[in-house]
Amino acid sequence: xxxxxxxxxxxxxxxxxxxxxxxxxxxxxxxxxxxxxxxxxxxxxxxxxxxxxxxxxxxxxxxxxxxxxxxxxxxxxxxxxxxxxxxxxxxxxxxxxxxxxxxxxxxxxxxxxxxxxxxxxxxxxxxxxxxxxxxxxxxxxxxxxxxxxxxxxxxxxxxxxxxxxxxxxxxxxxxxxxxxxxxxxxxxxxxxxxxxxxxxxxxxxxxxxxxxxxxxxxxxxxxxxxxxxxxxxxxxxxxxxxxxxxxxxxxxxxxxxxxxxxxxxxxxxxxxx
Length: 273
Ligand code: 13P
Ligand code: ZN
Hints:
The chain is α+β, with helices and mostly antiparallel strands and about 270 residues long. It is about 40% helix and about 15% strand.
């Protein structure tokens, strides 16, 4: 089967388009990774032409010998559906989890996203907790970024404020949101800090930069990013009207919601203000 005919590739391309249409991917902003199932690799591997091995820049032993569909560094999300072979690639990770090689795509040259260390370290943490996790998504979500100039860079505060802005939020991300202080992007250092927080959350904010989401499939991961960003938009609107809430959802109301929706909401987020 041709790579572009495979369902997982179509889902990846659609998600890139959806992110572009949300306005989260100016220029080459953002990146996306999908950990390909072995049966999906079998479907398309007749097209593979392995290139040179390259260092990942970190070590991900739990991802050894796996294949990933990844956006290219410097490539634009808006072009992913228009010229996918130029914008995305499939990579193979070696048997130690130290190197990768491109086996398909990026036909005009280039390399996978500069955030590959963060994508793979987050993916490794998630896979070890739940082997069904397959998608890591980084987007430049406008309202979340705006809030990192106004709220304290504290996951407890971000989680609670975003939960209060939309009743569905605690149900969609009950494990809360982590926050990484501003750091230089694109390397191992920020990947280590992000993956530490990914052990506890499915969403991690990069201050003054954007957000990472992790999930089992494209719909869940995009939906998670979308829900958190929508909630951030409501908070930005609310703060633009007046600095204080006239009324809101209380900690006891969250506890009631948790019971009825059968989710566990950690008490650390239900503090008295
Ligand atoms: P890439 O073009 O290398 O994926 O980088 C975009 C980005 O968002 C960096 O954080
Ligand atoms: Zn970025």
